[in-house]
Write a structure and sequence with these properties.
alpha+beta
């Protein structure tokens, strides 16, 4: 009996579909050699999308690594690595490209900032324009930054803390830390008079932070399901997944930063640095002048006013990204640091920190602050255990890639595979960080240090070996050419804030039940009943 052509065609299509979507990914793909986090992973993205949509991806992937090893398949074309050799050194120091995951969401005014640029070339070009203004030597010798520190920390924050201490009422420290970091970062980028003043303008700051944080809950849709999100938008149905107020919140943020940029341009146009050094827009001026110089090298008759008008949104997009990323990440780390430092079991660490700070002659001296070993250890351990961005950092494999720790490596991977690592898992490798879930600043200090707890090291040699290995696995700021450009400023502003608070005040936990990490790309505290970290504050004098 003859079989009709349509039946043969349907059978061929079914066989092809069976091979392409079931047999090949499960048995014949190079990725089939990698352990799967879930039985459905070779065939579908649903497992990882489920956890991403609920902001639970980080612990889910970490559990998969604990169960299956240092390389895990988490979707048909996605893998996660948790190692230095064959992992972050290969992927991030090796210059793997970013792909579109970042550019799907990290665009402002319709313009892509450096952070979201998918290709290495444009990113490197922009980074060269900005890296010097964030260099440690620049920060430590900046009269502008010293002046900003004296005003923000020595005057505004000190006044606010005295008000809290004198009132006898506890304070919500998450919003206070966010106010401090936003004021600090915006002051360095735009100048003090052009930046925010949320330490003093508390209601305005609380409104800003609430709107900023609320909109982050909806980034999953355009970031991980961009085609669906665009399709819903064309049908006028995007509100089903992203409330309309989110677009307004984004517009308000863009308007705020654009206003700061315009004010900064006015300062730069005055032709010389402000008499008040704290008002100089350090980062804005650096980018603006670098872009202008680049354009002048390409053509002769460049009119500055026309240039500024043409580049206005590009500069604003870059400044928005630096401002929001800078304040958000540092405030998250600081609130968890404050939580750890204010626990009853860590009162001795708080006292040791205070004793170290008291010895400072100038609390705005960036170099002196950077040389405090107990302060450094407390910040380092808080960044390890409470990294603000502990989630996935995806990259795209080139052809014939080899990934995986020694003994677990997989070779000849095809191009276009999404590979990621996450600081959460790297920072919890027990062979590198013993007792990884415990907050132990002593792991970063030599055995000769005067610390409240016993050193884990029997000798200086043991200490140096441990520091070298922990340094390889420490990933709070990423690594390679795409490493956080503002990491030095982040370290400085966190340390300056800590010095201002615990140099003169004591804190203790009143309420901390909300101090549980969110499990997504960003790991801010989830809060409880609208509260995060409520601390009692008293004068240490």
């Amino acid at each position: 009996m003859a079989i009709s052509v349509p039946i043969l065609a349907l059978s061929a299509l079914a066989t092809l579909a069976l091979y392409r979507y079931i047999l090949y990914p499960a048995f014949f793909s190079p990725l089939a050699r990698i352990p799967s986090a879930h039985w459905s992973v070779p065939f579908s993205r649903l497992w990882i999308l489920y956890y991403r949509s609920r902001e639970e991806e980080t612990p889910a992937v970490n559990e998969a690594h604990q169960r299956l090893g240092p390389i895990v398949r988490i979707a048909p074309n996605d893998i996660s690595v948790n190692s230095v050799d064959g992992g972050i050194r290969t992927v991030y120091a090796g210059g793997y490209e970013k792909g579109t995951w970042y550019s799907n969401i990290f665009q402002n005014y319709g313009v892509m900032p450096m952070f979201a640029m998918p290709d290495h070339g444009p990113h490197s070009k922009r980074k060269r324009m900005l890296s010097n203004i964030y260099a440690k030597t620049t920060l430590q010798t900046s009269p502008s930054l010293s002046a900003v520190t004296r005003v923000l920390m020595g005057e505004r924050l000190k006044q606010r803390l005295n008000e809290i201490a004198n009132s006898g009422e506890p304070a919500e420290f998450y919003w206070l830390m966010a106010a401090c970091t936003m004021d600090f970062v915006s002051a360095y980028i735009f100048g003090l008079s052009q930046g925010t003043d949320f330490i003093q303008q508390q209601e305005l700051g609380a409104k800003f932070f609430t709107n900023y944080k609320a909109r982050q809950r909806f980034q999953f849709w355009p970031q991980d399901l961009p085609l669906l999100t665009k399709w819903l938008g064309k049908l006028g149905l995007q509100f089903l997944v992203i409330p309309k107020w989110v677009n307004q919140a984004n517009a308000d943020l863009e308007a705020l930063i654009l206003e700061m940029c315009d004010k900064s341009e006015h300062v730069v146009n005055q032709g010389s640095r402000e008499k008040a050094q704290e008002n100089w827009p350090n980062v804005y001026a650096q980018l603006r002048n670098a872009l202008l110089k680049e354009q002048q090298s390409c053509k002769d008759d460049v009119k500055v006013a026309e240039f500024v008008n043409e580049q206005r949104l590009a500069m604003a997009s870059e400044m928005l990204d630096h401002t929001l990323a800078g304040f958000d990440t540092s405030s998250i780390t600081l609130v968890f640091l404050a939580w750890e430092l204010s626990k009853p079991e860590n009162v001795a660490w708080q006292a040791a920190l205070r004793s170290e700070i008291v010895g400072l002659q100038d609390k705005s001296d960036a170099k002196a602050i950077d040389n405090l070993p107990i302060l450094q250890a407390i910040v380092q351990e808080s960044l390890r255990l409470h990294a603000a961005i502990p989630g996935n950092q995806p990259r795209i494999t080139p052809a014939a890639a080899t990934l995986g720790a020694p003994g677990h490596s997989i070779s000849e991977l095809p191009p276009g595979v999404r590979v990621q690592a996450q600081a959460w898992s790297l920072h919890r490798e027990p062979t590198v960080f013993p007792d990884p879930e415990a907050w132990k600043p002593e792991r970063w200090l030599p055995p000769s240090s005067k610390t409240p707890t016993t050193s884990p090291y029997a000798s200086d040699e043991d200490y140096r070996a441990a520091q070298k290995e922990m340094g390889r696995w420490f990933w709070a700021f990423g690594s390679g050419g795409r490493m956080c450009v503002g990491s030095n400023l982040a370290m400085y502003d966190m340390k300056a804030i800590i010095v201002a608070i615990w140099g003169e005040f004591k804190t203790s936990v009143r309420e901390g039940d909300g101090m549980v990490h969110r499990g997504g790309y960003v790991a801010e505290p989830v809060g409880k009943d609208g509260k995060f970290l409520i601390l009692d504050v008293v004068s240490a004098r």
